[in-house]
Amino acid sequence: MIVRPTGNWLRMLFVWDGSVLKSIVPQLLLMLAISSLAVMTGGRIDGVKIPLDTAPFPLVGVSLAIFLGFRNNAAYARFVEARQIWGRILVAARSLTSQALSYLPQEDEGFARQLFVRRLIAFAYALTHQLRGTDPKPDLARYLNEEDMAQLSGLDYIPVALLDRLRLMLARAARRGQGPEQMLWMLDAQVAELAAAVGGCERISNTPIPYPYGVLVHRTVYLYCFLLPFGLVDAIGLATPLISVFVAYTLFALEAIAQEISEPFGTEPNCLALHAMTRNIERSLLEQCGQAKPEQLVPCSRYYIN
Questions:
Q1: What is the longest distance spanned by two Cα atoms in the chain?
Q2: Which of 158, 130, 128 is nearest to 144 (CA)?
Q3: What are phi and psi of 92, to 5 degrees?
Q4: What is the mean pLDDT of residues 203-215?
Q5: So where are the chain's domains?
Q6: CA-to-CA distance for 256 and 262, rounded, in angstroms?
Q7: Which residues contact 258 (CB under 8 A, 6 or more apart)?
Q8: 3-state class (DSSP) for residue 44
């Protein structure tokens, strides 16, 4: 995800990093070619005049803009919900760590607080990799022992398995009388909050915006943009390529933005910075334990951290 300071108005006109312009350059070049062809031929194809004027385009354009607005709102709602879920993961992880360190005894045969926190950090990394379909082993190996790694190998839902291990550690502590039952229920409630967050992430990841809806918007945008030069050429003449490309930029960019943010767990520049957020959870929990923290990931203007 790209995070940039707000620039002045002139710099914002020429910004490249974080803009979807780079992804729609081919479409804009195609629009430039089509509109230039419309100017050179006077709006004719094979000598046949395309009977279009400017009258219907404002009406269709307004309807299309409203349609794109609804789609962008739906995509942004998914993005915001995904970010809120990860915010709850951070809060629950901090609370669970604080409660475990404060209320449960020091490490003994019944409960190992440091192991508990290491498994909690591993859970955050496992969830990140599950959502992105990447290999979690390098990150998990930093916090889990060989026995845990062997037991988790081949599982499809590693974050859930790690939460089961956290809950099992709490159950063992309860059986050994290492804490009041009410206090252990309080810790279990935080584990349940993490499990609910996993389910929320899976729901967003596994339920994209309906495909026919995206296809309809895509076809309508492209058909409108490709016909636009033939409707403008008689009215504005040589200015047709400029106006056509500008209108196409607006519509193509809106569609591209909606496509990116509708998949918040992806790796596009404007998707959620999952790796940076997971590192933040890792640093926070290690600091609570009084242990050395890894370096913080700080996005800058020339690259993005996802």
A1: 90
A2: 158
A3: -65, -40
A4: 89
A5: 9-288
A6: 10
A7: 68, 71, 72, 74, 75, 217
A8: strand
